[in-house]
Please model this.
Amino acid sequence: MKIHTYLFVFMSFIFFNELAAQINNMTYDEAINIAIAKQYPEYHTALLKVFDNFEQELIIKKVISDGSYENYVKVLTKISKDSTYEVVSDFALGDSLTLNSQRYNYELINIMKKVPLIHYRNKAQAKSNLFNQRASEIAAKKKFFSRSDYASLLLEVYDEEDFQLPTIRTQLYRFLDPNTNHIFYIYMGKPTQGE
Model:
């Protein structure tokens, strides 16, 4: 009987180590997106549909020729060199995202509670956090943060795989959408005594 108990404990140990290894092999940003798809499947499906519709609008308006990563890089590069570069779109992305969130009672904070960042501390820094950190550094150094800075930072921090993640695509599309008043919050540092 003891051998069965030891065997069970040993097999359980192997199973949980395999599970932990799988968790540790993904990034925090990937884990957040997987959790969104699992906890809010209808929201996730509707979100991807909104993305497809917005992308089609960008193609129709000739902002991009297709949905390839290279086309988005070209647009972001143009904006990074000229902050007045206009993206034309009649699609109400912000409204679509808000309605989608309300319809499916989606709240990112619920996902973040289920996927604590601390479990991913041994991996490279979460790119979403790195983006915010770099934005804060740029704003502190320059005393402002321009549209060109934002586009440059998207190109600096994220790669082709990242742009496939719905949370990163939301950030990209909100930035590109001329009809969305996207507010970007960044950490500007601790308060200091005025002179």
The first helix runs from residue 2 to 24. The chain has nine helices and no strands.
